[in-house]
Every structure is written in structure tokens, then in C-alpha cells.
Fold:
Amino acid sequence: MKKLLAMALIAAMSISVLAGCGSTAETASTEEATPAEETTEAAEEATEESEEAETAEAADGQTYTIGICQLVQHPALDAATQGFKDALTEALGDAVTFDEQNASGESANCATIVNTFVSDQVDLILANATAPLQAAASATGDIPILGTSVTDYATALEIEDWTGTVGNNISGTSDLAPLDQQAAMVKELFPDAKKVGLLYCTAEPNSVYQCTVMEEELKGMGYEVEWFGFTDTNDVASVTTSATESVDVIYIPTDNTAAANTEAIANILIPAKIPAVVGEEGICSGCGVATLSISYYDLGYKTGEMAADILANGADITTMKVEYAPQVTKEYNAANVEALGITIPEDYVAIATE
Structure:
């Protein structure tokens, strides 16, 4: 049997050699893929397609849990959270779930909330406002953290030589509207005013930062500037009252404590005939006359897009620059403007009321 197999093999080799000595046409025909080769290529392609399908199926099966810590319930922060959730849901569908917690304005609650997120090993943390960002930064160096409604990351995280990137497991979006333009708004609306009071919460680093920049801008325009800081909700009314006794105009930054107490502030400013130019729409709706506003929903939505890029595409958060609102709008509070008898330029837009 072995001899027969050997003879068959020799014969096959001889036929192959003879075929190699044929005409050019015959040679060309031998370069075409044989049925066996075509079968092998088809099998390889099928394997690749199968592997791709398995990868896609694995990706589709991936689920993510997002921990959301929001400092306080407020229209601006609520809008940012909603924008964030909408963007992630559009990108990942049912693969993403949210553990949404509100700290009720207490920094201690922020620490408790984010520590729970870390224990639960969530896939990403959204820190909505400065205090949640600081708490999250202290709680973990591994879980990706995205901030939103944070004015200045360098101030909040005590970073020197700010380059626009935090450089670790933190990035996000800033709600800072251009402060020079806000100062210009004060000058445009109240050119005859002499003294501007800066009303803010001393416990909020980003408010201090904004007031510091505004003081420089306003003094450069010829205004006197005085600071009026309240420590928490309990002394908002007394500090605001003090401010009305010595200033012509109030400036309020994007301050979370002020945002939660606009009614109390308005009840003092409006009867005293003291107008307030403020840092964002929510505060303006309550106690201001004008603002250079951003869309907090759009800001949150941008943050959600960043989160989707990190979770689904493996984007490196350590290289992600902090993003800013794409546009700002001059807005005014029609009711407060009317109450104070202020004339507003035509390029300002009235804040929508329910």
C-alpha cells in the first residue's frame, strides 16, 4: 500500500512539473485562485465577520452605571443634569443607568454621596457644581469624574499654572460666561453709577474667583467696588440689606447659595431700588435685572457627550480639556426692569416666564 501511495505522489509531482512547462495561456490559468484557495479565503472572511459580530455583540451588551451628585435643586443645575442624561441616553440607550443624588446644598452630603458611588464602583461620576467636584476629587483617583456648572477648575481644585486640562481622572465643562463682557454690561446699563457691590457666598471658591476678576474689570472702568459676603443661607438677607445701604448696583456671580435664595434677595433689592447684574439666567429670573447667560442644558449635554466618548470609545480623560458654553446671550428680567424703571437696549432678550 505504501508503495502505491508513493508512486501516486511521484506521478502527481510529475504532472505538476509538466504543467509548469506549458504555454503562457496555461501559465496564466494556473495563477487564478483554485477552488480550495477560494474556499480558504471565504472561510477566513467568514471568521473575521464572525469575530466582528461577536465584538459588536459584546459592546452592545456592555452596561454602565453613572453616579450623579448635584449640589442643590435649582433650575440651572437641574437643566445641566437633564442635558447630561439626555446626551448619554441618546448615545448609549438602555446600556446606561443613573444613580442621581442631591446634596441639598450641603458639602458634607456631597462627600457621603460620592463615597457611596466609589463603594458601588460606578463607571463614571458627574459632579454638578463645585462642591460635588471637590468631594469626588477627594474620594477617587481612578473613576472618571466629569464636572459641570463649575466656574473655574483651577480655583476649585487648587491648580497652579492652569493649561486648560486637569491632567488626571477629572475633566468637564465650565459655566463661566466672559467676565469682561459682564462688566461691560454693568457699564452699558448703569454708566452713571458710582459704586458696585459684589454679593456672593464666602464658602464658594468659584464665587470668590469671579468677584476677584470683576473687581479688577469694574475698577478699570472707574467704579468703586465693595465686597459683601454671606457664609450661608442664614445671613443672606442681612448681608444683602447691608449692601443696599452703600452701593448703586449689585453684581452676583454664578453662586449656588445666591441661586437658592433669589426670592429673599429680590425682596430686599427691589424695594430698595437697587438693580443687580448677575452671572446666570436662573439668578436673574429671581432677583436680577440683566445677565450674560449660557444654556445650562447645552452645557450638560456637552458633558454627556464627553462621558459617552470616555465610556464607549475609550477616550483618555487625562487629556480632555475643560469645555465652555458655545455661546452667550444678553438677557433681562422684564418684571424687575419694569419695577425699577430701567431702559434695556434692543439687543437684550427677555427671559421667558411661565
Notes: The chain has a mean pLDDT of 86. The chain is about 50% helix and 20% strand. The two ends are 98 Å apart (CA to CA). The chain has two domains: 63-175+295-321, 179-293+329-350.
